[in-house]
Design goal:
Helix content is 38%, strand content 18%. By secondary structure, it is an alpha/beta fold. One of its GO terms (molecular function) is dihydropyrimidinase activity.
């Protein structure tokens, strides 16, 4: 059942960390990278039982810190036991033979925008089509960003609850903050205490629409600290981006390549550094969304070396693509790759992959924010009017496997960066939180 707040979904993570198969992502084949769905007819997946009792037998069960051969027994969608050689009455249990396969969690995408009103249009994926795509790719939960209505958080949440009525899987909400006053501060407290929304995003870009100034960001960071909530930033220098955009237009550069040229990596690095320093001044953790450049990654690495609590989130498009697509002479092709911050030139993606494998960056989202070619064509004569956004909700799990589980990260790290790291991220906010103790408790809960 879909959740309307983040906290219930996190409780489910503690109970269902190995439920990729039962939650529709299923077992990942070692040699062929094929997913085996529990529901429906799938070759080699077994059969029998009434569908309420399932035994996934003989696979390599993987979580973020351990992989071992074990069975997974499920009743009514809840994992009852995870251990080797679970005895069951095969006449009343559907047995799925997972021999030679991994059994791992369904993914959690921490950064999506479904049915979002943006740049004069609405993203093409809603909470049904987006969920269908996610489930097809092995993601079984996502966290979407609620956009306030005229700055009103409660109205924004009600709007998104209505949008999510067609949900087909678990979801949670972050909340964007687009202006600041006493009412917004009060509503933030309501979001945390009554709705379980405890992460708030501040846009340092999109001047004239979503962008907040430094003084508003400072007040927001202070409020997040007082609530024990997580502050998130879209880090680009919005004033400089606006100037860069006008410079491109003045030079007669109107195509998609102007998008990348107008907001170079230095502007992402500057804003990331500024946000990190303001968070240090307030003494509160900071989550930097869609880290797309070496410039931003270096600032995060520096802060972490100095002991600051900063979480860096790359997105799958930034890990595996480069900006050559934005220079394609066919506008329809080039415009597909317009997102903010932009996909960077060759070299940035490999550096971000290395940062992910070394722990400088923690978990991978998508910034799934999809528009069709008709919508992208709004900017056919002015790149500033191209709706920003790319896909990834369906593709993330597969692309990360193919690009990273090839000597860069282990299969347990794969589970961490695609799923369980979000749990640890939120626990960083708790006083006295010990990552190692929590990992040990988490592991014991899974395998005992």
């Amino acid at each position: 059942m879909a959740t309307q707040a983040l906290a219930p979904s996190l409780r489910l993570l503690l109970l269902l960390p190995l439920l990729a198969a039962a939650a529709a992502a299923a077992a990942l084949s070692h040699p062929a990278h094929e997913f085996c769905a529990v529901g429906g007819d799938a070759s080699g997946c077994g059969g029998g039982g009434d569908g309420t009792r399932i035994l996934i037998k003989g696979g390599t069960v993987v979580n973020a810190h351990l992989a071992e051969e074990a069975d997974v027994y499920i009743e009514d969608g809840v994992v009852v036991a995870v251990r080797p050689d679970i005895p069951v009455d095969v006449d009343n249990v559907r047995v799925i033979d997972a021999t030679g396969k991994y059994v791992m969690p369904g993914g959690i995408d921490p950064h999506t925008h479904l049915e979002m009103e943006f740049m004069g249009t609405v993203t093409i994926d809603d909470f049904f089509s987006g969920h269908a795509a996610a489930l097809a790719g092995g993601t079984t939960m996502h966290i979407d960003f609620v956009i306030p209505v005229d700055g009103n958080l409660t109205a924004g949440l009600e709007s998104y609850k209505h949008k999510a009525a067609k949900a087909a899987m678990d979801y949670g909400f972050h909340m964007a903050i687009t202006k600041w006053n006493d009412e917004v501060a009060r509503e933030m407290e309501v979001m945390v205490k009554e709705h379980g929304i405890n992460s708030f995003k501040f846009f340092m870009a999109y001047k004239g629409s979503l962008m907040v100034t430094d003084d508003l960001l400072l007040q927001g960071l202070r409020k997040c600290k007082s609530l024990g909530a997580l502050a998130m930033v879209h880090a680009e220098n919005g004033d400089a981006v606006a100037e860069g955009q006008q410079r491109m237009i003045d030079l007669g550069i109107t195509g998609p390549e102007g998008h990348a040229l107008s907001r170079p990596p230095i502007l992402e690095g500057e804003a990331t550094a500024r946000a990190i320093r303001l968070a240090k001044f307030i003494n509160t953790p900071l989550y930097v969304v869609h880290v797309m450049s070496i410039d931003a990654m270096d600032e995060i690495a520096k802060a972490k070396r100095e002991g600051q609590r900063v979480i860096g989130e790359p997105v799958v498009s930034g890990l595996v693509l480069d900006d050559s697509w934005l220079w394609d002479p066919d506008f329809t092709i080039a415009s597909k790759y317009v997102m903010s911050p932009p996909i960077r030139e060759a070299g940035h993606g490999k550096a971000l992959q290395a940062a992910l494998s070394s722990g400088i960056l923690q978990l991978v989202g998508t910034d799934h924010c999809t528009f069709n070619s008709t919508q992208k064509a709004f900017g056919s004569d002015d790149f500033r009017k191209i709706p920003n956004g790319v896909n990834g909700l369906e593709e993330r799990m597969h692309i990360l496997w193919d690009s990273m589980v090839t000597g860069k990260i282990s299969v347990t790290d794969y589970v961490r960066v695609t799923s369980t790291e979000w749990y640890y991220t939120l626990n960083l906010l708790k006083p006295g939180f010990s990552l190692e103790v929590t990992r040990l408790s988490y592991q014991n809960a899974l395998f005992n």
